[in-house]
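[retry 2/3] HELP domain-containing protein: previous attempt timed out, resubmitting with same input.
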Amino acid sequence: MEEVVSDGSDDEGAYDSDLERQLEREEKLLAEQEGDDDHKRLAIQDRARNEALQWTSLVLPPQDFVPDEKCEYKPEEAITLDFVHGYRGWDCNNNVFFTIADEVAYFVGSLGVVLEPSSRRQKHYSGPPNRSMKEVMSMAMHPAGSIVATGEFALAPHILIWDLSTLATLKDLSGVHEGGISALAFSKDGKRLASAGMEKTGRTVSVWDWKNDKKTSPICSQTLKTPKIIALAFNPRDDVLVACGVNMIEFLRIGLSRTGQRGMSPSMLCAAFTKTEFSLTTTIRNAVEGLCLTGSDIGNIYLWKREEQIDMIVSAHRSSVHAIVTFVNGFCSGGKDGKVRVWSNDLEPLNSFDISAVLQQDVIVKSVDQRQGRILVGTHTCSILDLDQDTGEAQVVIEGHMGGAVEAVACHPTKPLYASGGADRYLRFWNLVDKVLWKKKMLDHPIKSLCFSPDGKVIAAGHALGSWSVHRVDSLDEVITSKDRKKSIFCVKFAPSGRYLAVGSEDSMVDLYDCASDYDWVATLQGHAASVLHLDWSIDSRFLQSCGSEQDLLFWNVEEQTLIPGFEETCDIEWDSYSSTVGWSVQGLVGTGLANTSCSRSLSGHLLASGNTDAMVRLFRFPCIVQGAEANMCSGHVGTVMCVRFTCDDTFVISCGSEDRCVYQWRRKMRYHRGPQTSVSAEEREVDEDGFPVTGEPLFVLKPQTMAVPPTKYRKPDDADEPPLGGLQMEFIYGARMHDTRNCAQYTGHGHIVFLAGATGVVYNPIQHTQKFFNGHTDDVICLSLHPDFITAATGQVGRKALLCVWNTYTMQTLSVIRGFHDYGICSVSFNSDGSLLASVGMDVDHSIAVWDWKTGQKRASATGHVNRIFCIAFNPSDDSLVSAGVGHIKFWTISGRLLRGQQGKFTQGDKKQVFCSLTVSKKGRIFTGSERGEIYRWKNGDVDSVINAHHGPVFALWVCRDGLCSGGKDGMVKVWSLALKPLVEFDMRTQSTGVDNSKVRSVCWLVRTILVGTIDNELFEIDIEAGAPKLLLQGHRSMQVNGLATHPSKRLFVTGGDDHSVRLWDMDSRKQIGMRMLEDAVSSVSVSLDGNHIACGLRNGKLVILKLRTMRPHLERKDRKLAILEVKYSANGKFLAAGGGDCFIDIYDVQSEYEWIGTCAGHKGSILALDWSADSKQIQSDDERGNHLYWDVESSKEILVAAEVRDVEWSSWTTRMGWSVQGIASKFQGPMGINTTCRSSFGDTLATGDDWGMLKLFRFPCITPGAKSKRYGGHSARVGKVRFSFEEKTVLSSGLVDGLVVQWRYL
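[retry 2/3] HELP domain-containing protein: success.
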């Protein structure tokens, strides 16, 4: 809402025009919330998305960036409101109160605030748990001083009654008023509450029995004819209520019968009843119900006895009287003249205080409250003062910006200090620690933007009307003022080197100035179509990016003063800050559908704060690259959030608002444990010359992740930061993705088999038992189709803006990549008869269908598929029409220009619509579908031609060829049919599968005399139809998580364990499974003993199982823990076994004494994730999920607290993620928390890591420089759970926590 400010004149009509303007603005705001508001909002969202397409299709990621699977989810850290500077005083009366606890209660934006003045601590009430409070515009204090009521400004406003101490909601009243709650008042006993609404046709006054839980509606209501009710007050005996407003005052009895009404020329702006009987008995007799005092807009105070006007009228203020509060011996009043006056009960003036003189600016007193000789004063300049009633001494409790929007904030680069500026022209500096105003200065023009210099000595301000200025921070003296533009300066930004100042304007220009040459003009950068809103410099100050109001993002070479035409040259630039609301790093903001006004990247580089038009401050992960990414959201503002900034140490986020006119200070909740903190008084604290803390440490203290101490004799080699000499080559993938796909294993024209595994397309040679790999995808590949040439394959993946890749199965080269149309994933693809077209089905809400000319990447046609899921799509070779099938439907499509026209298939009479799980079409156009009930349907011209009962349960797979039809079902049967659906032969896969769940067939492919079968256990079989004997080709884990991976200490064998409860033994040379054991629960970890005789298995239920490696039979079991055992490892000498897990303990067992327990290491605060033994088996190092890296003495089972004691220990293995030797593995983009596993090579010179983004990396070992160079290898679709070297260092093995793969790599 706009400010109502007087021009200072004393004529009686001055305030009338102000009041009329305020009423007009309120009506305008309410009109904006009417029924067409949804259409406006949707239009804005659509426009924002369309504008975003200008740059989202062009921006490129950094070359070394690897996407985080968590990037679309909200960050683990959050922000909470710490302090708000300002209060709503410009358009509200009597809204500041003392509490019973001597605190101060008031409201700002959409918050109720309780301030403890001495400690500068605020509590913030944001509404009941199930909804956030909307804009607040009225407040009333309960007589007890411990409860308040707040009223909202909204179409359907709520009245919320809440406890000042606990912030608990006591009552939520709604359903009566419209438009807003303009006034509230409690009765003397606090049992009743009066409210005034802002309805269009008359203003409603209601009285509530708010403590009565059974009564949710008011006791009574009455509609009054007035533009606005400004104040309400109960008389001391609760039977009369006075309502004051524009040109009116009305007295109502409970029941709201009118006892008296007066339509008056002056408007009544405030009201209060005397606390004791009035003393002028000669004028008014028998005043037993209390006397009413009202203040008018012409400066008079009227004395009333109910409906009768007292003859005495006091001229109290030179203009409007906005506030009156009564106490036992008199009352106080506050007015537009900036005065607070104290009166006796005889209406004799006792004292007068000039608040304008205290604040050194013209103010209007809008609120007063009195308690124990102190007067609380609220002003229209958004300041609150605590005034001594006897001495007149005043203390500023809260101060804020006084007029219009607060549009800019900037944080000091080294000190706990930030600045704000706005329409009131004041440049204000705020102390972050003490939460007070440090300095302020009024500038010549409204402030649009702010920026501190890199050394923090000066601050630049951009102004309205095209000027900008620079001021010294210490003295606020002006360094320079310049005006080279005619319109507002929306952004100013110093270069990190301090050499340049960039100034962006509404004139669409960016001007550069030389700071070292008294800010001489250097150049003007032209290229934007409209206003320049945001600027960011590169770290080396060579490049500048600018963001415009038309969603245009431009990059500039500052040295050459030229526009960089493409995004390729800028994708690897490291930016000193990121405040632009468009760009690759913040493209995820687009999906919100809101106009993003500001954003700020944290100093650490992994968080992004944003503000937009919905009044929310959001915290995202950075980079934020997934459109519609989740965020932690914080409410409190009203209207647009104009600017957000992180403070110099990332401890706080600062934001400012347009309509609330306040500056919000949000404290960041740290992810890691805070170190010990002590309370230090202001007198004891060491401060600099400006009074800011000098500690040598950041404002927050993090517990170290690792005690990193280098070995005594270590000397860093010159090539230590270079990538290692060795490399990886993918050799074999164990298992195929069958458990949730359909017909995703097929024969190629060369007799090979193409199937899917993780993010990889695999071509398998069944004769040589070798594989080739296509790695063009970035996420799980879930659908496959072969071209009619049986050489070209099309595959689709999951994920936002999913990729559709076409590639050659012989050369493994990419032929085409289509992206940008399907959201969330592609579930089915199909080539047409000549292979020129490719159809795809998306996993979006509309299950969209598209037809592509895949060679050019052009979309030929598209349509909304169906309201329900589509499982399959296929071209009809006879006429190149399309068929789709899925939940409750089959649909036949024809291509008509750029449109697809669909027609529902017709079922036979009495037949219910089916869920179709599979679909196939013969070359002659015969269409077959398999249903979830086990039936096979044959279709002709869109109608059911024939139906047979084929399987018990869903038919997951169908394949048609000239020889007939083949089907596979959940019942584990593979059946062969004639094209007339006559049974020919069948095969029972339940007797052949060696997996966990051997009863479900997910894929079939019939080629001449062989049938390729894929089962839900991720196994592949080949059936010779004539011989009838299935042959096992490939095996893998059934589960999506393979948690355990360990190599044999002396043989080329390895062991895996997964969520499918299985432990499997594999041969690296034959690339086959040679042993398996099913256990009672999921397997979380495995380890092979030094002699190779035993396999230790940690289970999810806390049990430890020892298997004999040769027979895979149990040797013994024991259960000492309740939670999962996440890591097991035999000691270097083979005598001990260590087991750690979710209970945060490491148990040590004596192997030679039949695994007798001998000790427990206790000290971790989180689940044990990795551990290593020393070469002499005397020490252990371990990591936990909370980032702690600890060392242990095995003999005593006690923690080694001094890291220096183990600095020269030789470790038999290195699999922990933390420690001195691996401190360089952290990426500059994701940090160390995305790394799941490490493994040092057998010869000790190379380190392999696996991360959350499906990448394997090779570093030199030790790796001690953060951001050290590495070699990267993709293949997994997401999280890599374990990575291990073989004993002779020829092979690297990796397991997946999402794709369920075990990948064998050749170490070159």
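[retry 2/3] HELP domain-containing protein: The chain has a mean pLDDT of 87.
[retry 2/3] clearing retry counter.
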